[in-house]
Amino acid sequence: MNRRFTTTGALVAVAVLGLTACADAEPAGSTDAGSAESAAPDAAAAEVDGPLDLASVCPETVVLQQDWQPEAEHGAMYSLVGDDYTVDTGAKTVTGSLIAQGVDTGVQVEVRPGGPNVNFQPVPSLMYLDDSILLGAVTTDAAIVAAADQPTVAVVSQLTKSPQILMWDPESHGGASTIAEAAAGGDPVVSSGDIFPRLLESEGLIEESQIDLSYEGTPQRFVSDPSILQQGFATAEPYVYENEIDAWGKPVGYQLLADVGYSVYPEPLVVRADKLEEHRDCLTKLVPIMQQAQIDYLDDPAATNALIVDLVDQYQTGWTYSEGVAEYSAQTIKDLGIVSDDPASGVFGQLDPDRMKEIVDTFGPILVDAGSIPDADVDPESLYSNEFIDPSISLG
What we know:
single chain; alpha/beta; D-Maltodextrin-Binding Protein, domain 2; 2 domains; nine-stranded mixed sheet; five-stranded mixed sheet; 11 helices; 16 strands; 19% strand; signal; NMT1/THI5; Nitrate ABC transporter substrate-binding protein
């Protein structure tokens, strides 16, 4: 099982459980082209020109680019894939009828994973290389990095706050329940990149001497040296370490980085800035569909989780993802408020202008210090648009 982590605005791949060898054999049911088909969808056609009819305004295939391997955090995207889906095990993509709210929208949807499947290229780079990608998942600090040469505009937030965490062994840290308590003894803060450690340092939660950028993604160091604090995701590592790593097999302590200033929007869906006008009519209908898709997925994640687990198995990239992790992730997303209505407006998926300004003000200087951008002169308003949001959609 691999995990991603945002660092200096780019995606860095790390392995949490150790990579398994990629299989050469095609999965059961595959054709010679390396694809597997499912049954046709049982969905009524959208009302012509109605809000769910995308046929006249969107591309024949709506291509959605994720920033990492299939996982429950991406459930909204995968929930749109109809039962007639085809899996391309070579390209590592899934394509099927775009089914929204039980209705066939008249177009296809193709979901592409990121990470090793795209040689770890950042999503903005992929979008500027491939015009067919309509929407990509780009965390706000990555959007800041790309703003000068590959600008994107976030049109809907699907995770309201980051699921990224710092985790530790409670027994080795006096039963600590917060990062401040766990880090107070000066133990190493181990990560694969320096953005969030620099943030913690600027917040006075850790000293510069504690920053350790040697994280390789395996659990060995944490298991053998439980004095360290280590990066992770609330939606995976607490479950994995307790239930799937035999050498550990007990709870970990953790706190969301979002609780201590890591205010970035995680993986909002963006369009290329120079393509916004071209796709305006499509976005007007598609963005509300994406808003509702996240809500519907969390209300009933089982079928989509089964698809995600199946895709991971068929892609055979070394990434492992169990049904248990998927179920835990979907529940944790709800329990921790990782998905919630925008606090400022009460609308799900809307981006808060004040928060966007705060993100640029906070992370711009950090990214400059990291050498990711030459200066922090980025207009927050250029990074997002709420014009396509349906204000009637909320979790409430």
